Amino acid sequence: VQLQASGGGLVQPGGSLRLSCAVSGFTLEDYAIGWFRQAPGKEREYVATINSGGRRIYYTDSMKGRFTISRDNAENTVYLEMNSLAPEDTATYYCAAGVGFPPKVYRYWGQGTLVTVSS
Which DSSP string do the residues of 76-112 spell out, in sequence order? Predict the structure, then answer.
């Protein structure tokens, strides 16, 4: 089982990035996928979740309108489009898979991709 997060990097304030979470070793369409982030010295923070069929989505309030989660089950990939990025969005972003919506427990986790927002 593997979740591979990618797409992070250095971006200027106000910029955009699209993160990808490529999964293997399990059937993506059976799982909800969530994105989380953890900034240095801070606790892990929930970002968004998309259900297995892609029709139910939940965002943390501070992400609404700026972040968009989507999935392509045929490509075994979930995306997180991030716009209007600010320095406080700097963090390592992780994707995770769980059953149910929202999942009570995220069973599988990826290794994370670092997003740095700085001028």
Answer: TEEEEEE-S--GGG-EEEEEEEEEETTEEEEEEE---
**Around Cβ 45, how many Cβ atoms within 10 Å?**
15
% of residues, the chain, pLDDT over 70: 100
Cβ-contact 56, 69 below 8 angstroms: no
User: What confidence score (pLDDT) does residue 116 get?
Assistant: 98
CA gap 40, 104 in Å, rounded: 25
Judge whether 31 and 95 are in contact, CB under 8 Å.
no
Please give the span between the terminal C-alpha atoms of the chain, in angstroms, as a whole number: 37
Number of Cβ within a 10 Å radius of residue 50: 25
What tokens does 10 get?
A: 């250095």
What is the predicted pLDDT for the residue at 62? 87
Distance, CA of 36 to CA of 44 (rounded, Å):
7
